[in-house]
Amino acid sequence: MNQFVTAVLTSLSSGAIYALMSISLVLVWRSTRVVNFAQAGQAVLTTFIGYEVTVRSGSYWIGLIAAVISGAVVGAIIDRFFMRPIFKRVKSGPIVMIAPVVATLGLLGLIQAIIGFIWGFTYVSIEAPVSTDGYNLFGTVVAFSPFNLMVLVVVTIAMLLLTLLFQKTNVGLALRASAFSPEIARLSGIRVDAVRTLGWAIAGAAGGLAGMLYVPGSYLHPNAMDVLLVFGFIAAVIGGLDSLFGAVAGAMILGFAVNFATSYISYKLVFLTAFALLITVLLVKPNGVFSSSKGRKD
Amino acid sequence: MEFSLQARGEKIDMKNTSVRKRGLIFIAIGWALLIIGDRVDDLALSQGALVATYALAIASIILLTGYSGQLSLGHSALMAVGAYAAALSTNNLGLSPEIALVVAAFVTGLFGLILGFGVARLSGPYLAGTTLALAVSLPTIANQFAILGGEQGVAFDIGLPPARFGEEFSQYKWFFWICALAALIMIWLISNVLASRYGRIFRALRDNSVAASLSGINVGRLKVMAFALSAGVAGLAGGLLVMLISGVSPSAFPLSLSFSLLTGAVVTGVYNLKGVMLGGLILVAIPEIAESVVSRIGGSEGFTVALPGFLVSALLILAVVFTPNGPGHLLHKKKH
Amino acid sequence: MSLVVENLTIDHGAIRAIDNVSFTVPAGQLAAVIGANGAGKTTLLRTLSGLKESKSGSATWNGKSILGVRPEDLARSGIMHVSDGKSVISELTVKDNLALSGLWRKDKKDVAKATEEVIEIFPILGQRLGQISGSLSGGERQMLAIGRALIARPKLLLLDEPSLGLAPLIIEQIFQTIKSFVKKMDLTVVLVEQNAVGALKIADEGVVLNLGSVVAVDSAANLLNDPVVRSAYLGF
User: Fold this and answer.
1) What is the ipTM of this complex?
2) pTM attached to this predicted model
C-alpha cells in the first residue's frame, strides 16, 4: 500500500514537470510547426539565471520569478531574431522540411556552449525552499516530500492560468486562431507574427519554470535538461503534438508509466519504459492518444 | 512522374561507363592515400584514420537524410551499437578483429532494420525526436548491462600490423590503412547504390513521398531499407572508431557526436557524397582549432571544454541558413 | 474612393497567372470578376489582400497602393478578403470565429454592435453561436466567413467564390443577402465567381478574365446581354 501511494505521488510530481516541458514544446509546435529542441538549452540558461538571482537575493522565489521572466524574454528573442529570419531565408528545396529543426538543434548546442563559457561544466545546485525529505505517512517515510507537493501545486496553478489565458481572453483567442490558421488570422487583422512571438515567450516561461522546479531535486549543468527535453517530447507525442490538454495528459501517462516501472520492477527501466511507450504510441496512434483522428499534417 | 529523368542538373546515367569511371576514381584516391600514408608521421596518420572514420559516418547520415529524407539524431547511438558489437565479438566470442568489424556492421544494420520499422511512418520532428531519445538514453542503458562493462566499457584491440609489413610499419599506419580502406570501399559501394535506380528512387522519396508512392514506389519499405543501410555503415564506423580509441565506453558516443555528424553532413552538402571527406576533415579539425584558439587567447576551463561544441553548432546554423542545399548550390546560378 | 488596378501582372511559380490586367471599381459599386477555372481570379484576390506578391503593375485603394502590404495591415485598414473554401477556423466556435475581426479594434462597443448587425443579416449564426464551426453546413460556413469580415466594418470587400459547393437555393439566398448589405453598408465589392450569371445579376459592373487576361470590362447588364460573352462564359 505504501509503495502504491508513493508511486502515485511521485508519478504525479514527475508528471507535473514533464507537463511543463511538453506544454512548452506543444505551444511552439502549434504556432510554428517546429519542435523546439533548443528548449532544453533555453531552460538551462534561464535556470542558471534563476540560480544567480537566488544566490544573490537569498530567495528561491525571487529566483523563480526571474527564471520565468527571463524564459519569456529569451523565448521571444529566439523567435523574433532567429526563427523568423530562418523561415524567411529557407523557402525552397528539400531542406525546407528539416531546416528549422536542424536550426533549433544548432541553437541548442550554441546555448549549451555559451552556458559552458559562462558557468563552466561543474555541477551546481539550487536549494529547495521547502524540505525535500519525504513525508511521514502511515508511520513510514514516503518518497514524496513537501517540495514535491509544492511542485504539484505550482504546476497546477500554472496550468489553470494558461487555460484561463487561452480560453477566456482575447489574447488567448488570437493565439489559438494564429495556431489553427495563420492565414485566416491575418485576414482578420491579427498580427500573427507578433502573436507567434508571444507564444514562444509563454513556452519559454514554461521552460524556465520547469527548470526551477526540476533542479532542486538534482543538479544544474549545461546538459541538465536534455533528459527532460526528451521526456517532454515523448509526453507531447503521447498526447498529440497539437493539443495542450494532450500535453498534460501525455505527461501524466509517462510519469505514471516510468514511476511505476521503476518502483515495482527495476530502477534501471527509466529510459526503456519511456522509449517503449514512445514507440508504442507512434506505431498504434501516431497522432497521439488524445488527438482527433483527422490528425493534422505535420 | 518521370523521376528517373529529373533534370536537376544531373546527367542521365549511362550506367556501365559511370560505374567504371567511379571505380577508377576511387582506386586513384586509394593509391594517393597509400602514398601519402608513407610520407607522413604517426600523428597525421592517426588523424587521417579519424578523418576517414568520420567521413564514413557522415556518409551514413547523407544516405539517410540527404537521400531518403529521414532526419536522425541517433547515429551516435548506432555507432555505439557497432562499437559494442565489435568489442564483444573479439572479447567474448573470440572472433578476429577484422571479422568483428563486419559483425559490427551487420549487427547495427539489423538493429537499424528493426528501428527503421518502428520509425518508418514518422516524419520530420517525430523522427528527430525519437532518434534523439535513443541517443540520450543510450549511455544510461549501456551503463546498466554488466556485459557491456558499465562505466568503463569494453576494450577492443585490433592487434599489431601483420609482420610481413616490416618493422617500420607503425600501429598508426595500420589504423590508417584499415580505416581509409574500409571508408573507401564502403563509400564506393554506397555511391554505386545511389547512382543506380535505387538512388533515383530514394531521391524521389525524399522530394515528394506522396507522389513517389503514387508512382508505385513502396515508400515504407524503402525508408526501412535506407535506415538499415545507414545503420550498418554507422555501425562499421563505430567499430573503426572503437579500434582507434582501443575500447568503447558509454561516454565515447555522446549526443554531441550526433550533432557533429549532422553538422559535417549539412556543411559539406547533405545531398551528395562528394563532401564527406571534407566533412570528416572539418570534424577532426574543429577540436584542433579550438585548442589553438584557447592556447592563444586563454580562457577558463569552461571555455575550453565548450568551444568545440560552440564551433560545431555555429557551423551548423550558418550552414543551414546560408547553404541549406549544400555549398555546391551556391555555385549554381540557376534556381531550381 | 475607388479600387484602381492598372497593368497588374502576377506570376504563380512559372505560370503567368494574371497578365496586364486593368480595371476600376468606383466606390460603392459591386464588380463581378468572372471567368473559367484557372482564369487567375483567386490569384488576383489573394494579391489584392496581401497574401501574394505581384510581379508588376499597380493596385490602389483611395489612391494608396495596396500591393506589398501585409494582409493583417490591409485588413486593419478596411480591406477584408473572404477567401474561398476554408475561410472559417473549424476548431473554433461560431462566436469565436466572429470575434476574430474585432480582436484588434479598440472600440469594443462598436464591435458588439457590428456583431449584432451581422446576426441580423444572418440569423442562423445567432442560433449557432456556441457550436464548433467545423460542424456547420457549407452555406452556414460561408455566412460565418462573410459575417466575420463585416464585423470589421470594411470599406472594400473581396469575396472569393462564395457560391462554391453550395446548393442552388442557398446560392440564391447568399447573393441576395450580399446585394442588400452591400447597398446598406455602402461597401465597394469585388466578387469573384464561377457562377457568372448569378454574380452579374447582382453586380454593377463585370470583368471577364480568361487565362489571366482581361477579355471584357463593361457594366453587368451589358455583359449579361452580350451574345459573345453569353455563349462563351454564361452558357446561354
Assistant:
1) 0.90
2) 0.85
